[in-house]
Amino acid sequence: MHSTMKKILPLVIMFLFVQVGMLSAQNFRVQAAAFADSVSNNYFKDRGVESVIAMVDNNGIYRYFVGSYNTLDEAEMIRKALVEKGFPKATIVDLEVQHALYESPCTYFAGNPTADPASGDNVRNIYFESGSSALSLDSRRELDRLAQTLRDNPDLKLQLTGHTDAKGSAQSNIQLASSRSRIARDYLIARGIRPDRMFLKVYGEAKPAVDNQDFYGNDLPQNRKWNRRVSMAILDGSGEVDLEGKEP
Fold this sequence. Notes:
Blueprint: H1 2-23, E1 28-35, H2 42-45, E2 53-56, E3 62-69, H3 72-84, E4 91-94, H4 95-102, H5 105-110, E5 123-127, H6 137-152, E6 157-163, H7 170-190, E7 198-204, H8 221-227, E8 229-235
Parallel strand pairs: 6-7
Antiparallel strand pairs: 1-3, 1-4, 2-3, 5-8, 6-8
């Protein structure tokens, strides 16, 4: 019996650790703000917010988080506190939803994400054929909606970020990404949006939304199409990403 217990005990301990981990899982994260460019920690400390974690997403947006929380109620308390401290666009991120969109096995193995993995409430995207910077009909429609949003909200600005998949050389992909972002900007200029309201960034193949290949090195063409994009983030007058539902 004693020998049997010695064999079973480690399994029991492991089981308990797993159960505790499940009970303490952090399901929600609170984003204090998101900016097109980085800001210093003093920006938050001066407003009474400590321990801010900065992250840069695949669209080049700097996101600043204040902790992770087990329940929606806990996260909502923090969000309200941030609003009172001068962060009116503080928002709650559901980590389970993020996991489903960004880390689902279908993204890597089936190569067919169920939702646009590079889009969010505050970032929209247009997509391109391989090696091309020509605007599709769908892209033109998206840009038309965006132009209308910018005309209706003259204080808003726009950051356009050019991306590619990983085919070709890194240098040629930088050039292609630059061409894509400029084509999108020029289209908006032709529809009455002033050039000084728009800013360009170019990443080429450096920030894919999803993997171009699976774990075994097999090509994922359905994933590559998500990476051939121009991401468009709507910014308010301070350079913060707009989260007020003014996106197209």
